[in-house]
Amino acid sequence: MEHAWVFLLVRWIDLVLAAVVAGLAVWALIDCLTRSPVQFQRAFKRTKGFWLALTAGAAVFSVLGVLGGGSLLIALIAATIAGVYLADVRPAVSLESKGPGSW
C-alpha cells in the first residue's frame, strides 16, 4: 500500500480527461442543435439528424462516464466524434451560414 497515491493520481487524471471530453461533446451537441438543416446540405456534409445523433450519443455516454467512472474506450470514441464535428463539420457549416462574399 505504499504506492496507493499512484492509483489515486491515475483515477484523478482519468476523471479530468473524462470531464474535458464531456465538455467537448456537450459543446458539439449544442452547436449542432443551433444549426439549420440546410446549412449541412450546403456544406456537403451529412444531414443534421446524423450529426445530432452522433453528438448526442457522445454527450450522453461521456457525461455518464464522468458520473459513473466509465470506460476509457467510450471516452475515446466520444472525443473522436466531438473532435470531428468541431474540427471539420462546424467550420464548414459556419462558412455556409455567413453567405457568399463574407469570407
Model description:
With 103 residues, this protein is mainly alpha-helical. The chain has helices at residues 4-34, 37-42, 48-68, 72-98. The protein is 83% helix and 0% strand. α1 packs antiparallel against α3, α1 (4-34) packs parallel to α4 and α3 runs antiparallel to α4 (72-98). The chain starts with a helix and ends in a 5-residue tail after the last helix.
Kindly summarize this structure in a few lines.
The protein is 83% helix and 0% strand. The chain has helices spanning 4-34, 37-42, 48-68, 72-98.
Question: Helix and strand layout, with pairings?
Answer:
Elements: H1 4-34, H2 37-42, H3 48-68, H4 72-98
Summarize this structure as a short list of keywords or feature phrases.
103 residues, mainly alpha, 4 helices
Helix content: over 70%
Apparent shape? elongated
Radius of gyration: 17 Å
User: What is the tally of beta strands?
Assistant: 0
- Assembly context of the chains: single chain
Largest sheet geometry: none
Distance linking N and C termini: 60 Å
Mean pLDDT: 88
Number of helices: 4
